[in-house]
Automatic annotation (TrEMBL):
Pfam family, any one: Gp49
Protein name in the entry: Addiction module toxin RelE
Length: 122
């Protein structure tokens, strides 16, 4: 099994964790469906690691770091691999158009750079 961590800023806050807790606490059927998809895809990521492929995951190309996205429709969760077998969940957004939102990818990269700097990884 591959290890999956959740990005936290230097105060210990995590937008991913807060969002997952909101989904978990929600009584809305749609939120529960999304949460079920997320749990399933996280399980696949933990089992397959870097071998995970579409439709579950996709590499976002053309950026400084290799950022990937889990794809529990309609949500997207950006994540990155480090140390060859560990992953960090960075951020999420609801995809509303065909193209991936560049601002969202850049936000995930900013979080990754902060995380790598504080964790002493590269």
């Amino acid at each position: 099994m591959y290890e999956i961590e959740v990005y936290e800023d230097k105060k210990g806050d995590s937008e991913i964790e807060d969002w997952l807790n909101e989904l978990n606490d929600s009584k809305q059927k749609d939120d529960q469906k999304v949460l079920k998809k997320i749990r399933y895809q996280l399980k696949i990521l933990a089992e397959l690691g870097p071998k995970i492929r579409p439709p579950h995951s996709k590499v976002i190309k053309g950026y400084k770091y290799p950022i990937m996205e889990l794809r529990p429709q309609p949500e997207r969760i950006f994540y990155a691999c480090y140390d060859g077998e560990k992953f960090v969940l960075l951020s999420h957004y609801m995809k509303k158009q065909n193209k991936t939102d560049k601002r969202q990818v850049e936000h995930a990269i900013t979080l990754l750079e902060d995380w790598l700097e504080r964790k002493g990884k590269q």
